[in-house]
Amino acid sequence: MKKYLENINKAFESRARLGIMSVLMVEDRVDFNTLKETLQLTDGNLASHLRALEDAEYLRVEKQFVGRKPQTTYQATEAGREAFKNHLDALEQLILSNRQNE
Amino acid sequence: MKKYLENINKAFESRARLGIMSVLMVEDRVDFNTLKETLQLTDGNLASHLRALEDAEYLRVEKQFVGRKPQTTYQATEAGREAFKNHLDALEQLILSNRQNE
């Protein structure tokens, strides 16, 4: 297989996960509703992608109380940032390789 | 949702489909075994991704005989080439937008 394809990370394949990670690369901590509105996903869909990224240890979930209200925030881990950068590099290689052949 | 995310095409999300389309952008007609070896996919996995791309009318399947042997080849359609280029452009926007924020 071509090298750049090997480096494409299945954990980030879907548009939803590309979107989630793109948001978390910029914002330190993001809550569920902000992600939901930014990415226009349903609750169930967003939750399942967040869980997959948490299982891969690419993001960290924090539950806390703001006054009496529970608030859940999401934050990219160092491993998540690193892995996402590598994924973007692999996508860039794919794009470059396709453009060379045009 | 951010514009570049909207333009990411779900039909090309998986690594396998990125690989298939990358090959078909360069080679005019490719047979099953060449794709299988190039992308290192199982028969079932490759067949199911090819079927999805055929259903989307992004590739065309041709069955013919070479001597007495049946041969199946795959070819990107004009719509497939156009859609794949748009997908790569959207990925490029995603990458650029992430790099700006580093």
From TrEMBL, chains A, B:
Winged helix DNA-binding domain ranges (all copies): 17-95
InterPro entries from the UniProt entry: WH-like_DNA-bd_sf, WH_DNA-bd_dom, WH_DNA-bd_sf
Name of the protein in its database record: Transcriptional regulator
